[in-house]
Design brief:
With about 260 residues, the chain is mostly helical. The protein has 3 domains: about 80 residues, MazG-like (Helix Hairpins, Orthogonal Bundle), CATH 1.10.287.1080; about 80 residues, Helix Hairpins (Orthogonal Bundle); about 45 residues. About 75% of the residues lie in helices and about 0% in strands. The longest helix has 24 residues. The mean pLDDT is about 95.
């Protein structure tokens, strides 16, 4: 049996949810498991970023467990089971890859994406707006990228990159004005506009804003930890000038 372990895993999850199974697993619902789905997905992404295949294998297993648990819960309520999940995904993949499973001719990856979007639109006939179907649970930066990309697909695009820079600098000026007014609500609004303008700049240059910020976070954390190692007294006792010199030293040491 080629997928013996997978089939046995499905049975294990069903056993955990059975009347004589695990009390914790039996108490879980779709809503109670929601944080776990997000956490496991992020941990899998961490493993990908680390290029650690052993860690990735483990984390993918944790993601799969969430899929199986949700499917088992749905099955118990007569909604669907893991077989229905697999069938729907299989059918969708076949339908959206006519260049593989049909006679459609595709020249490159860009045409694959274009055709995918076209087929997806044909499937989602209930969607009236280009913004319909966006997940509101994803990180705001990631959502901003998707909103921006969807708007562009309708033709709502800046004429050139310079106009994007002008928009970005304009939003910064508007934020400064809001700061002078000391209007927190206005400041928050204008700061949000700065972030959205920055996302548009990233999209224009084919940069994933979410990944760029993740890398920036990791870089800052790494440099800060190095500062802590190099410090000869508590960081709280450093003046700005000493802090700046220590930061530059940390950057130099890390290369």
């Amino acid at each position: 049996m080629k997928y013996k372990n997978l089939e046995e895993l499905i049975e294990v999850v069903a056993k955990l949810r059975a009347p004589d199974g695990c009390p914790w697993d039996r108490e879980q619902t779709h809503n109670s498991l929601r944080p776990n789905m997000l956490e496991e997905a992020y941990e899998a992404v961490d493993a990908i970023d680390e290029n650690d295949m052993t860690h990735l294998r483990e984390e993918l297993g944790d993601v799969l467990l969430q899929v199986l648990l949700h499917s088992q819960i749905a099955s118990e309520h007569g909604d669907f089971d893991i077989e229905a999940v697999a069938k729907e995904l299989k059918d969708k993949l076949i339908h959206r890859h006519p260049h593989v499973f049909g006679s459609t001719s595709i020249k490159n990856a860009e045409e694959v994406v274009t055709n995918w979007d076209k087929l997806k639109a044909e499937e989602k006939t209930d969607r009236k707006s280009a913004m319909d179907g966006l997940s509101k649970s994803q990180p705001a930066l990631m959502l901003a990228q998707k909103i921006s990309k969807r708007a562009v697909k309708t033709g709502f695009e800046w004429p050139d990159e310079q106009s994007l820079y002008e928009c970005f600098y304009s939003e910064i000026e508007e934020f400064k004005q809001a700061c002078e007014e000391q209007n927190k609500e206005h400041m928050e609004e204008e700061y949000g506009d700065i972030l959205f303008a920055a996302v548009n700049l990233a999209r224009w240059n084919k940069i994933d804003a979410e990944q760029a910020l993740i890398k920036a976070n990791k870089k800052f954390e790494k440099r800060f930890r190095k500062m802590e190692e190099l410090a000869t007294k508590p960081l709280t006792d450093y003046s700005f000038e000493e802090y700046d010199a220590l930061w530059k030293q940390a950057k130099k040491n890390l290369g």
